[in-house]
């Protein structure tokens, strides 16, 4: 039976590759690398660098595919679902046309497949279609969350307090739930600027794990403008930006003490 290896490759640094991920890479007969146009060529190049550095299986074939463009009209959820189905069709065609019945397809996933990545959902579309049978194995990877905390030398959680992981789109709608700490990913709207708590702190990072990595931290009210300007300049320089940040509001005990 065909097999799909979903391999977490880390947040951009080839040294994030675990021993398990390197082993999985070398079990693949076919590796499928997504390309997202000139602006995000770095993402494909980073995957190729990993292959150049760690791939020892000379029989492995490396195939590229152009990632379909997600439509912007209509509802967000419908656009995402249509986009996933389009990518699923590419996976399915690759399995049928380029992967033998006893071969393995490797998918190199930025970060870890479980965190704000849709590869596993897309594979579910392929499975549901039922036109090709396959097994699946997932290899965990280092995420931008880990890279952010390591870069700033901080812990993700405070003792006894929850952390909510959310997106910029959700944070812009309202501070997440009852959590006083929010880890924010996929923020294209600079939602941090809408947090009104004057005592909130932020630890921000862009291009985490890559040679372009940028780290900023401090009182959010003091450095929000600096982060916005840094984002603007970085996007202009590289054509794209991926950033992650942690916002912390004062703990209830601190507020009571201040009162």
Describe what is shown at a glance.
Helix content is 37%, strand content 23%.
State the CATH architecture of the largest domain: 3-Layer(aba) Sandwich
Instruction: State mean pLDDT (0 to 100 scale).
Output: 93
CATH superfamily of the largest domain: Tetrapyrrole methylase, N-terminal domain
Envelope shape: globular
Can you tell me the residue ranges where pLDDT is under 50 for at least 5 consecutive residues? 254-259
Q: Give, in spatial order, the strands making up the sheet with the most strands.
A: 3-2-4-1-5
The CATH class of the largest domain: Alpha Beta
CATH topology assignment of the largest domain: Cobalt-precorrin-4 Transmethylase, domain 1
Q: Portion of residues in helices? A: 25-40%
DSSP strand count: 10
Strand content: 15-25%
Return the structural class. Answer: alpha/beta
Order of helices and strands: EHEHEHEHEHEHEEEHEH
Q: How many H/I helical runs?
A: 8
Outline the biggest β-sheet.
Answer: 5 strands, parallel
- What gyration radius follows from the Cα positions, in whole Å? 20 Å
Catalytic activity: precorrin-5 + S-adenosyl-L-methionine + H2O = precorrin-6A + acetate + S-adenosyl-L-homocysteine + 2 H(+)
Pfam families: TP_methylase
EC number: 2.1.1.152
Pathway: Cofactor biosynthesis; adenosylcobalamin biosynthesis
